[in-house]
Hints:
Oligomer: single chain
CATH topology of the largest domain: 2,3-Dihydroxybiphenyl 1,2-Dioxygenase, domain 1
Number of domains: 2
CATH class of the largest domain: Alpha Beta
Structural class: alpha+beta
Largest sheet: 5 strands, mixed
Helix content: 10-25%
Shape: globular
Amino acid sequence: MKIEHIAVYYNDLERARDFFAEYFGARSGALYHNPKTGFRSYFLTFESGARLEIMSRPDTAEGDKTRISTGYAHIAFSTGSRENVNALTERLRKDGYAVTSEPRTTGDGYYESCIADFEGNIIEITI
């Protein structure tokens, strides 16, 4: 068994699609739109074959992304090396994204950093 995809709601669907394409190499499928509910989504596919569904609809509620709570915590992307973790973290910082956790080796041996995307969702960047 494998995870088929992960889904995340965004307010700005087009910006989310562009963000994942620009920084993480996502390829976007066609826009799906249900005019009855206002639901819209794109499936993004990454080099590894992993897929992320980004979604929006007019009646979504804003969540508190600043607290540690149950539910979505982060999405992690493997870059292949410490140098790539450092370089992507710096690129995102220079482009105005908040680095919420500087590149470091964690207690369980991961080398990683974390950034907040344009809507405050946490993205982990690791080897």
